[in-house]
Design brief:
heterodimer; A: about 250 residues; Rossmann fold; six-stranded mixed beta sheet; 9 helices; 7 strands; B: mainly beta; four-stranded antiparallel beta sheet; about 0% helix
């Protein structure tokens, strides 16, 4: 449900709740839009895969796609499967375990033309994936998967997060937090680009890991600015290599 | 303490009776809310919840201490007039300001509108007086 919310607490903009897929907008690569992806999916016979390494935003992309047109306008049933013991039928919120027997029961119940989205397809065993693809084809299901490595499906997008994307996400999170702080009479917290750069490479380009690191940095910054040290506890002295360039 | 959500119309006013935002187990937490600029017919329901939630690097957890629902169909409910609420503060969990985990308490008011986005506003409070965890 859509809400207009006035956040009462300051929260770390890199906390899990704020950066989970769906909470953070997906930053589409240049030239890629939900419409262009749908077109590519259509051209490949409604079979496709999104390939990308850990923390590259595959789940965020799926959430972004199914939340808006033209994907949202799809009139058939949509099944969103994730390997977290959850299977969500967006129409009726049905859930069941992501186990082979349940999966086959479920796929047999899907009507032709339904859209099946499997997030983390490579978490299913090789034979299971093969059977899944064959079943999907046999039942004329539209099938989109995310995976770390390509597997027998047309690749409609390969995600390669880079440093520019890291900056963009960090800037987005910080600017949202800054708006809250300014509205509440607090100075915004800035994290220098050099530090984002350093943490990005420490995380080997994994954006999720980078955001976790930025969570720690934000905690240090906010406490240094006195937000959480108002009980007289000793202020923290940050590691100098992190904050040499902090203005 | 009070929080006002909404720039002009509609306006939701949620207020706790105590100015000091620290409560201890067994204390009475009370306050009132009112909604201005909205007709009864525009409101589908109003939910008031006293809850805690976690925030940090892990998956968020939450628990509802108490909740009320106000329906416009109830003749006694007039959103323009102050609606009182009161509850006894539970024993746990205490508010906690850790580094990787925080536990926060809040009074949350959700005004569910017909055909429009809901309005949510919150008044935070602390349960207990645990000091923030200092960074190592």
């Amino acid at each position: 449900m859509t809400t207009v919310e006035s956040r009462a607490h300051e929260s770390n903009p890199f906390s899990a709740e704020r950066i989970r897929p769906g909470a953070l907008p997906f930053f589409f690569p240049a030239g890629v839009t939900p419409a262009s992806l749908w077109e590519q999916f259509r051209q490949s016979g409604y079979r496709g895969q999104i390939v990308g390494p850990h923390g590259s935003g595959k789940t965020s992309l799926l959430k972004a796609l199914i939340a808006g047109p033209p994907w949202k306008d799809f009139l058939g049933n949509v099944y969103f499967l994730r390997n977290r013991n959850e299977l969500t039928d967006l129409a009726d919120e049905e859930r069941c375990a992501f186990k082979p027997d349940r999966l086959w029961t479920k796929i047999r119940s899907m009507t032709a033309g339904s859209l099946v989205i499997v997030d983390g397809f490579d978490q299913i065993r090789f034979a299971g994936r093969l059977l899944f693809i064959l079943q999907a084809r046999y039942r004329r299901l539209k099938f989109l998967a995310t995976t770390h490595r390509p597997f027998l499906l047309p690749t409609i997008l390969r995600l390669n997060p880079d440093l520019d994307l890291a900056y963009e996400i960090a800037r987005h999170c910080l600017s949202e937090a800054a708006r809250w702080r300014l509205a509440h009479g607090l100075n915004p917290i800035n994290i220098p680009a050099e530090l984002v750069h350093k943490l990005y490479f420490e995380a080997n380009g994994n954006i999720r890991e980078l955001l976790f690191s930025l969570y720690d940095v934000y905690e240090v910054c906010s406490r240094q600015m006195g937000e959480a040290c108002d009980n007289g506890s000793k202020p923290y002295s940050p590691r100098s290599e992190y904050f040499d360039s902090t203005s | 303490m009070s929080i006002v959500a909404g720039d002009s119309i509609p306006t939701v006013i949620l207020r706790l009776d105590r100015d000091r935002s620290v409560y201890f187990p067994g204390d009475t937490l009370s306050g009132e809310f009112r909604i201005e600029g909205l007709s009864r017919t525009a409101i589908e329901a109003v939910e008031l919840t006293v809850l805690w939630f976690t925030e940090g690097k892990g998956t968020s957890d939450r628990g509802v201490h108490t909740a009320w629902q106000f329906l416009p169909s109830d003749r006694a409910f007039d959103p323009r007039r102050p609606q009182r609420f009161s509850t006894i503060v539970p024993r746990a969990p205490w508010s906690y300001e850790g580094i990787i985990l925080k536990i926060r308490w809040t009074v949350r008011l959700r005004v569910i509108l017909r055909g429009m986005p809901s309005i949510v506003c919150e008044v935070p409070f602390r349960l207990g007086d645990l000091p923030p965890v200092a960074l190592p």
